[in-house]
Amino acid sequence: MRKLLLFCLSLFVGTTVGYAQDDDVNHAFEFVTNDGVVIPHGSVYVIDKVVTEEDPETGETFPMLPSDFVIKNVSGTATDLVRIANEITRIDNGSYSTCAMGACLAGRTEPEYFSSSAGTIEPGATSGDLQTEWYPDTYGECDVDLQIEIGENAGFGQFGFLDFGPLITVKFVYYDFSRVDEGISGAPARIVGRYTLDGQAVNYLQHGVYILRMSDGTSRKVVVR
Fold first, then answer.
1. What is the per-residue pLDDT across 155-212, written as a single tens digit (0 to 9) for each?
2. Residues 90/138, Cβ–Cβ less than 8 Å
3. Fewer CB atoms near the end CB (10 Å): N or C, the chain?
4. What is the pTM of this model?
């Protein structure tokens, strides 16, 4: 069941994403959505779709927010290795886990920096499901900086770093604002649309100025730095 979730205004206003200039990264590999849309370097990408998982042994159900993007090789070669550097900058509760590039790592419950396993991606192909997910215990947020790292086989299973690829900030957001529809006093309005100044709808935010359309009929201008 998809819940009504809020990407709070406070997450956008004055947000600073630390990343290299576009010319300083190698775009041989890109983050792309499951339907093939490139997520630009430096973007803030929101994941607010909640699915329900079930423990096959106990039958217990719990919420999970799965990634909905992959890595694509947009170069003409398959000689390089690629992996993802993960930096959890905020995790309100629960655990963050990834099986990116073929190896599942233990779930993380605190802010930290770590890298996925490495693998090759054929030219024009994608990594397949990254299985990068947040399992919340309750409402809140998990923020993770993901950066593609390009390397070579350094022998004995070691990753020899060569270059940085694109970086995006992923915000997993889990809130239940169904009470808004019940007219509860003080319940915040939720965001129902994100637009550039020329009116184009977007799912992710880069640095710039955006218009947010709220469920109470109001609009707000925000700046992402």
1. 888 999 999 999 999 999 887 654 444 333 444 556 777 888 888 888 766 667 788 7
2. no
3. N
4. 0.73
How many Å apart are CA 132 and CA 84, to the nearest integer? 11
Map 3-24 to HEC letters.
CCCCCCHHHHCCECCCCCCHHH
Using an 8 Å Cβ cutoff, are 120 and 138 in contact?
no
Residues 94-112: tens digit of each pLDDT: 999 999 998 999 999 999 9
Q: Do strands 208-214 and 51-54 pair parallel, antiparallel, or not at all (unpaired)?
A: unpaired
Beta carbons within 8 Å of 165's beta carbon, 6+ residues apart: 25, 26, 27, 28, 29, 30, 82, 147, 148, 149, 150
Selection from 164, 138, 141, 162 nearest residue 151 by Cα: 162
